[in-house]
Every structure is written in C-alpha cells, then in structure tokens.
Write a sequence for this structure.
C-alpha cells in the first residue's frame, strides 16, 4: 500500500522566518514520483515540484527548497524568508508506476499561516 | 498554461437530488480525475478516466458515477445526493506521460452542500 504522512496539521510563523514542512511516504514500488502542491485560499491546487525516486539531488527554486532522502522516505519542503503570500495549505503526494500508476496518493495537508 | 474549469464554485442541493458536476480541460489531456477534499483527510480519489468512454474506480466511488463522452469533459454524478457528500470537489487532468510522471493540473474546486 502507498501512504503519505504530513504530521504537521498546522504551522504558524512570523514573516521572514524559515519554515520546513515534513512529508514521509511509504511505498513498495522501486520507481515512484513525489510531488508538492500548494492550495491558496482561492482553492486551486498549484503544482510546485516533481521528484523521481532515482534523483536524490536537492532542489532550490528561489525561496523554496526540497530535501529528498530515500533512506528515511522523506521529501521535506523548506520556505526561506517566508512571506504572507506563502500562506496556504500544502500537500505532498506520491505516485507509483506499478501499483495504481495513474493515481496520486495525497497526504492530509499542512496549513501554513504566515503572520505579518 | 493548462486550464481546468469546473462549472460551479458553490452549489447547494437537496437530499435525494441527482447532481451533476462538470469539468472541462483545454490541453487535450488524456487523463482526468475527480477528487473530494475533506478536512483532515486530504484529497481522496473518486473516479478517473484514461480516455473517452473509459472510467476507473478510485478509492471512494460509492454513491458516485462519471461520464466521459468527449476528451475534454469529465462529469461527476451524484445519483441521489446525501448529506455525507457535502464536500469540496476537485477535478484534475494530466497528460498520459511516460511512466506516470506527469503532474496533475487542478481546477478551482466546487464546494457542494447537500441540505
């Protein structure tokens, strides 16, 4: 079975602080893909990043960075110098290519609030 | 940019009614999906479709059906709405992709209330 756990239900920080959102996954597939999505108050889920299981390089995109560690089955997301516009619900998701190849399994989501 | 359009942002219906939620995508994507989102449960897959007239059950298909008569349109049908189907419904689409690596693109969601 595939499972994604986002243990942090809600996080609240003050603007300009760094914040890390945790994601731990379970899968028996040897090849799989991990995703992060952002859901602002408007409701639409916005795709942020995709990472395949063979690529453990960390990635940085502006203030966003992702740390993929296969040894601990984690794919954590860090926002540096947070801004109020970063306030949203963030979802981590897993897709395997053997079982349910076209289905995403989502975590429960982490509600991030950035206070001015 | 990919555009996934859901017909209604907010919808209020009564118990027992037949409810149609419509979704249209403009990028010629093969795959389309319907999810429901509930607090503390994340997104759960109801149904998905790989192609016209094809459909597959997701994790929670009970009480729902779908229709895909045209590639760009995927409809979710609540045959006889019940109060436990009050939820946010999200439609998504993706390219067929190589080994399932294509991201899904989501619509704005429909917040459905069943009274």
């Amino acid at each position: 079975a595939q499972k994604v756990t986002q243990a942090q239900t809600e996080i609240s920080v003050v603007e300009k602080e760094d914040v890390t959102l945790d994601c731990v996954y379970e899968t028996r597939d040897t090849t799989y893909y991990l995703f992060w999505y952002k859901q602002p108050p408007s409701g639409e889920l916005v795709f942020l990043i995709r990472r395949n299981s063979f690529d453990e390089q960390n990635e940085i995109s502006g203030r966003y960075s992702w740390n993929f560690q296969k040894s601990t089955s984690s794919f954590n997301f860090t926002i540096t110098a947070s801004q109020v516009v970063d306030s949203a619900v963030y979802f981590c998701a897993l897709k395997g290519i053997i079982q349910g190849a076209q289905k995403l399994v989502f975590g429960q989501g982490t509600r991030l609030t950035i206070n001015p | 940019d990919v555009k996934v359009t859901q017909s209604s942002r907010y919808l209020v219906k009564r118990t027992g009614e037949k409810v149609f939620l419509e979704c249209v995508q403009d990028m010629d994507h093969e795959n389309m999906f319907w999810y429901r989102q509930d607090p503390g449960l994340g997104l759960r897959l109801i149904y998905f479709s790989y192609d016209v007239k094809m459909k597959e059950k997701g994790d929670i298909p009970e009480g729902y059906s779908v229709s895909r008569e045209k590639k760009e349109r995927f409809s979710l049908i609540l045959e006889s709405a019940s109060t436990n189907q009050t939820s946010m419904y999200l439609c998504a689409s993706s390219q067929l992709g190589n080994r399932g690596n294509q991201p899904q693109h989501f619509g704005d969601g429909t917040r459905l209330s069943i009274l």
